[in-house]
Amino acid sequence: MIPNDNNLRRSPAMSSSTRDEVLRHLQAVVEIEPPVQQTGKAIYASDLTHEMFRAYTRSPHDVGGQVDVPVEWTEEESEAWGYRAYVTTECLAWRGVWCAEERRRMQNVDPWHQPVPGLALLRPLAAFRGPDPGGGTSHHPYRTHQQNRRGEKAP
Amino acid sequence: MSQHDRTHHAKIATGKGDPQCFAGTAGGPPKFKVGDRVRIKDMPDIFYTRCQVYTRGAVGEVAVVTHESPAPEDEAWGHVDKSEWFYIVRFKQTDLWPEYPAAFANDTLQTEFSERWLEAV
Description:
The structure holds two protein chains of two kinds.
Chain A lengths: L16 H16 L17 H7 L23 H15 L5 H7 L49
Helix pairs in contact in A: 1-2
Chain B lengths: L7 H6 L23 E4 L18 E11 L2 H4 L8 E9 H4 L11 E7 L3 E3 L1
Antiparallel strand pairs in B: 1-2, 1-5, 2-3, 3-4
């Protein structure tokens, strides 16, 4: 849904061209980063309107105002695993090990903010270290487990 | 290779604190006073801003004149030679969010801006 003037509810007390543009912008951000994950597609350059350009170039530090789905409030008690994970990350932070919580506190950014749709699909590549250079347990993409380095089948 | 001195900020803030170390560097008195009605300008930003987009164009009231400091948008690019006054501005929530329930019409939101983002109403 491309945002337009028709599906925009205005506040009668605060209506101006700037406010209209800001409210359209907040709807355009939903186009790129929907609160509920769904398959999106990159738009063509000819469809890149002013609203969509502003949504793409929104600073990830600008946190607030994003549309979200209603969240059901539940009374939860702290659990042991959560406390242990908290202590672990605190100790790692004391030792200077990078952790997401520390980064979130230092600069209030959304670590999974994706300015380009589909970029999150490349996330597993960050952990891919390439094929094993050698050894008996090599998982080379062009060799099966049953073959050795010379391509001979294992007995 | 960047020759940026990463300790320059610590050098001027040590013993005084931040933003106290920038007191008196704005080059004049604050442009607005507590109670003034101000509108948030919608100026372009790139890569960093601390002026939330959802406040752009909204009208609020200056709640506190806080301190002097380089603007975050300048500091992000390493420009700390000019300082500005900072203000805490109070908005009505119903002015910011069109679908805010009328039952909570007295709710307010406060956030901080440097002087460049404000214009008198």
